[in-house]
């Protein structure tokens, strides 16, 4: 029995062993096959990859690698009539070549340390940097840095036109060819030649191409004279000339400068002491924001072209994925044809009126002044207009505001200042003076239906250089009351259920520690509608609308939808309704916002060009503007109708002489429907008017560049509306007036202007100031159903017009205002509040006859008691139950 069991176990073990051997053989065979297959795939893939790489390299541009010169063609700009307006010549037209010997060692070392630390050792490409860049891409580490060497960047900019491929495959192909050519270039050209060519071609912002021009542009000196701190400033620009520009991006450039100086220490180019000396140098005080770059054309670009340049480069970066340098190179050397939206006839009108001295009551000057003095001890001191201001303050000249009445007075003041600071042995080594006419103005006009900007003016006075300060598009100023429509009234009616007739109580109003007041001196008005708030630009109504109906959060959201991009996280407050925002807005964005209302509530991003054709005749960009709906068409019309009323001469419904006047009548265009809103900041630093017709929307800003108040001496606060009217009148000459079309979504109803509700006949019509009933426009479905409860009718003594006592011999009825609880201060409505009891006919003034046997006076009416529930002391203020009237609303044609 045991023997049989043992034999069975042996057989089982033998079977299992054979099975394991068979499985091992099968698995080994599978592994061999898999290995052969993988090896085959690798060989095939390698062959294909090698063939692809070889093909890409074989297709690399056939260039004389030792004499790399970019192929550059002029770009031509056309206006809407097909006229050539500008020629943007090749990028090298304002480039000046510096030799290697002219370049300071610190300048070369600064660029090498930051851009390509192994520049002097590698053979054109840096495998370590490439692997680091690949790792950064794979891990999402944006701080890992790029893999391009200085040699590659020179190849990319010179051979590949800046690298302008649209697809990943094209970029990969270019990168491989770039590596191949970089190695080839490194063997054919010395490192000194490569770094010199690179520094002579890079874009350093402010239209400064190459380090030689940049040294003059930013420091007004030759490149060979640059200090270590100045070299680090220039090296910090090239990565992003817009962001790190030392004039407009000083903080970002300063941070970059510190990094570069540390790199130079780490790589042994400078000592720690040299680094500390460079960091202690107040280099940014010497950077002069002046245009000393060689001009690309015989005359400076227009303000329109200035903005066009920025718009085109932005479009290339956004739509084609170009970098700053790529977009710049393509614009100036790509041989493009740019078709703009500029209307030459309209632009001519705008330029004439903005620059007409007869349109201004003042012609003063602000200055930018620089003075550099080397003392007898060898130290150099730099002075600016800020030092000049301090000089006036120190001498007790509290009235000095930085503005001068004439050029002669400027020179006399500077001479006096120099005499006060110059000492024996001092040498003036540099001095510059730039004068700017004040007050300044900007103007934008666009077609609201297409978003096409037809003309702009970025300033008043002679334009002496290209790409200068453009007050129409690149300057942010406080918008004042023009913001009321965008942040308070528009969202209130569009989203929150308010109507043009909705009333708020105009009286003392405080939010937090801020008490808001109106711009006019005629006092608080009491119940006032949104229409009133627009026509008469009532501050309290706008603020109460924002805080009681809209909320600042919704107001900011609407402003952003209107295209305002300059709002910050600190703007969520009550002052938002009045344009009291942190950074201000640009005229271009304000005009586009109002064009949204003019376009039935649809925002269209303003465009300066329609299409760009490349050098080969292909469409590079078809510039169809972005659009989105912001308002219902009914809301847009309601706002338009109220703003049209603001341009008609009228006074608010109030006692004679007690109501404010409409704010925009001086801008009214004769013979053409127009609507608009004015804006003036609290201290009269900024004045605005933005308005539109059925054809065009236009915005004008006025003010002083350095925020001096617009006193009478500085031009006053009304010249802008007159200029707007003159320009728009000339633009619309010969055009028919189609009016503003009433959309099907709007209906009309009669309401009371003091409540915004349905009127009570005989009550609202008998307001002490006149008939308070008028016809208002409403979005369909929003006509009120409640009746006015702000007017009340009561019986009064015919003689005193106060509530009657039992002793008043004659009585009549009168209409009064029911005031809201908790409101303080006198208003135009409080004058007509329910009165007290008659002070004439009191118990003391009447002879009471003897009582009969019932105890009642013989003349008392049956059923009354002289001191019973129907009578209150004449000194009491309690009113008898009034007859309820109806709410009031402001009429579109308010008087």
TrEMBL record:
Residue ranges with Low complexity bias: 655-671
UniProt entry keywords in alphabetical sequence: Antibiotic resistance, Carboxypeptidase, Glycosyltransferase, Hydrolase, Membrane, Multifunctional enzyme, Protease, Signal-anchor, Transferase, Transmembrane, Transmembrane helix
Membrane topology listed for this record: Single-pass type II membrane protein
Region (Disordered): 649-679, 858-895
Reaction it catalyzes: [GlcNAc-(1->4)-Mur2Ac(oyl-L-Ala-gamma-D-Glu-L-Lys-D-Ala-D-Ala)](n)-di-trans,octa-cis-undecaprenyl diphosphate + beta-D-GlcNAc-(1->4)-Mur2Ac(oyl-L-Ala-gamma-D-Glu-L-Lys-D-Ala-D-Ala)-di-trans,octa-cis-undecaprenyl diphosphate = [GlcNAc-(1->4)-Mur2Ac(oyl-L-Ala-gamma-D-Glu-L-Lys-D-Ala-D-Ala)](n+1)-di-trans,octa-cis-undecaprenyl diphosphate + di-trans,octa-cis-undecaprenyl diphosphate + H(+); Preferential cleavage: (Ac)2-L-Lys-D-Ala-|-D-Ala. Also transpeptidation of peptidyl-alanyl moieties that are N-acyl substituents of D-alanine
Domain annotation Penicillin-binding protein transpeptidase: ranges: 442-728
Parts of the chain that traverse the membrane: 26-53
All copies of domain Glycosyl transferase family, residue ranges: 86-264
InterPro entries the UniProt entry points to: Beta-lactam/transpept-like, Glyco_trans_51, Glycosyltr_51/Transpeptidase, Lysozyme-like_dom_sf, PBP_transglycosylase, PCN-bd_Tpept
Pfam families: Transgly (PF00912), Transpeptidase (PF00905)
Record-listed E.C. numbers: 2.4.99.28, 3.4.16.4
UniProt entry tagged with the keyword Transcription: no
Top-level division of the source organism's lineage: Bacteria
Ranges annotated as biased composition (Polar residues): 874-895
Compartments, as annotated in UniProt: Cell membrane
Role description: Cell wall formation. Synthesis of cross-linked peptidoglycan from the lipid intermediates. The enzyme has a penicillin-insensitive transglycosylase N-terminal domain (formation of linear glycan strands) and a penicillin-sensitive transpeptidase C-terminal domain (cross-linking of the peptide subunits).
Protein name per the record: Penicillin-binding protein 1A
């Amino acid at each position: 029995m045991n023997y049989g069991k043992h034999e069975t176990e042996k057989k089982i073990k033998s079977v299992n062993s054979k099975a394991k051997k068979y499985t091992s053989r099968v698995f080994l065979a599978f592994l061999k096959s898999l290995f052969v297959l993988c090896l085959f795939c690798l060989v095939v893939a390698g062959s294909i990859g090698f063939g692809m790489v070889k093909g890409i390299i074989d297709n690399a541009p056939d260039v004389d690698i030792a004499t790399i010169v970019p192929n550059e063609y002029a770009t031509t700009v056309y206006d809407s009539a097909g006229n050539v307006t500008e020629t943007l010549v090749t990028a090298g037209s304002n480039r000046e070549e510096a030799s290697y010997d002219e370049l300071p060692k610190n300048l070369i070392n600064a660029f090498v340390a930051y851009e390509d630390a192994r520049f002097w050792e590698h053979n054109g490409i840096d495998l370590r940097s490439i692997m680091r860049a690949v790792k950064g891409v794979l891990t999402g580490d944006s701080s890992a840095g790029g893999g391009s060497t200085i040699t590659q960047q020179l190849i990319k900019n010179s051979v590949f036109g800046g690298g302008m491929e649209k697809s990943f495959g094209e970029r990969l192909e270019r990168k491989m060819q770039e590596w191949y050519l970089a190695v080839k270039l490194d063997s054919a050209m010395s490192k000194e030649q490569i770094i010199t060519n690179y520094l002579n071609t890079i874009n350093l912002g402010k239209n400064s191409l190459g380090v030689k021009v940049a040294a003059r542009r930013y420091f007004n000196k030759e490149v060979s004279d640059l200090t270590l701190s100045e070299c680090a400033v220039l090296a910090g620009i090239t990565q992003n000339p817009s962001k790190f520009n030392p004039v407009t991006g000083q903080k970002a450039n300063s941070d970059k400068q510190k990094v570069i100086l540390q790199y130079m220490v780490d790589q042994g180019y400078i000592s720690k002491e040299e680094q500390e000396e460079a960091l202690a140098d107040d280099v940014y005080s010497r950077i002069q924001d002046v245009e000393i770059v060689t001009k690309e054309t015989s005359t400076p670009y227009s303000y329109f072209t200035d903005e066009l340049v920025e718009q085109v480069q932005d479009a290339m970066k956004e739509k084609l994925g170009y970098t700053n340098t790529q977009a710049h190179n393509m614009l100036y050397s790509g041989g493009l044809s740019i078709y703009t939206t500029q209307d030459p006839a309209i632009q001519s009108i705008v330029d004439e009126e903005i620059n007409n001295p007869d349109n201004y009551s003042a012609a003063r000057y602000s200055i930018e002044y620089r003075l550099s003095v080397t003392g007898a001890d060898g130290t150099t001191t730099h002075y600016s207009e800020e030092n000049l201001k301090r000089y006036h303050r120190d001498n007790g000249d509290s009235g000095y505001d930085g503005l001068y009445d004439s050029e002669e007075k400027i020179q006399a003041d500077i001479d006096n200042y120099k005499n006060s600071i110059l000492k024996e042995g001092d040498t003036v080594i540099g001095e510059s003076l730039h004068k700017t006419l004040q007050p300044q103005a900007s103007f934008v006009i666009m077609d609201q239906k297409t978003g096409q900007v037809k003309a702009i003016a970025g300033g008043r006075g002679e334009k002496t250089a290209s790409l200068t300060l453009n007050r129409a598009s690149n300057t942010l100023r406080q918008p004042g009351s023009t913001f009321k429509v965008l942040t308070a009234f528009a969202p209130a009616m569009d989203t929150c259920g308010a109507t043009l007739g909705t009333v708020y109580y105009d009286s003392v109003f405080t939010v937090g520690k801020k008490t808001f007041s109106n711009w006019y001196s005629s006092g608080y008005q009491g119940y006032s509608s949104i229409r009133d708030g627009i026509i008469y630009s009532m501050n309290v109504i706008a603020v109460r609308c924002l805080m009681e109906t809209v909320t600042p959060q919704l107001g900011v959201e609407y402003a952003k939808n209107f295209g305002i991009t300059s709002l910050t996280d600190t703007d969520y407050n009550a002052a938002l309704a009045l344009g009291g925002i942190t950074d201000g807005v640009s005229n271009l964005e304000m005009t586009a916002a109002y064009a949204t209302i003019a376009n039935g509530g649809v925002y269209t991003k303003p465009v300066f060009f329609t299409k760009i054709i490349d050098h080969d005749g292909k469409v590079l960009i078809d510039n169809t503007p972005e659009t989105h709906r912001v308002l219902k068409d009914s809301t847009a019309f309601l706002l338009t109708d109220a703003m049209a009323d603001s341009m008609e001469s009228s006074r608010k419904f109030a006692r004679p002489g007690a109501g404010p006047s409409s704010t925009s009548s001086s801008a009214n265009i004769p013979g053409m429907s127009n609507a608009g809103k004015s804006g003036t900041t609290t201290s009269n630093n900024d004045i605005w008017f933005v308005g539109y017709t059925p054809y065009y929307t236009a915005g004008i800003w006025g003010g002083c560049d350095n925020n001096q108040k617009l006193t009478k001496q500085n031009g006053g606060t009304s010249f802008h509306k007159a200029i707007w009217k003159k320009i728009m009148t000339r633009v619309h000459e010969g055009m028919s007036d189609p009016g503003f079309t009433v959309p099907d979504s709007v209906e009309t109803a009669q309401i009371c202007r003091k409540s915004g509700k349905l009127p009570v006949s005989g009550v609202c019509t008998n307001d002490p100031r006149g008939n308070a009933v008028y016809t208002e426009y409403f979005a369909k479905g929003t006509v009120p159903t409640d009746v006015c409860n702000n007017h009340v009718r009561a019986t009064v003594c015919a003689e005193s017009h106060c509530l009657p006592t039992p002793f008043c011999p004659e009585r009549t009825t009168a209409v009064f205002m029911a005031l809201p609880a908790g409101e303080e201060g006198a208003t135009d409505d409080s004058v007509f509040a329910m009165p007290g009891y008659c002070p004439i006919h009191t118990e003391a003034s009447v002879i009471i006859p003897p009582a009969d046997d019932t105890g009642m006076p013989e003349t008392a009416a049956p059923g009354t008691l002289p001191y019973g529930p129907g009578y209150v002391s004449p000194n009491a203020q309690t009113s008898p139950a009034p007859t309820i009237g109806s709410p009031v609303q402001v009429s579109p044609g308010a008087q």
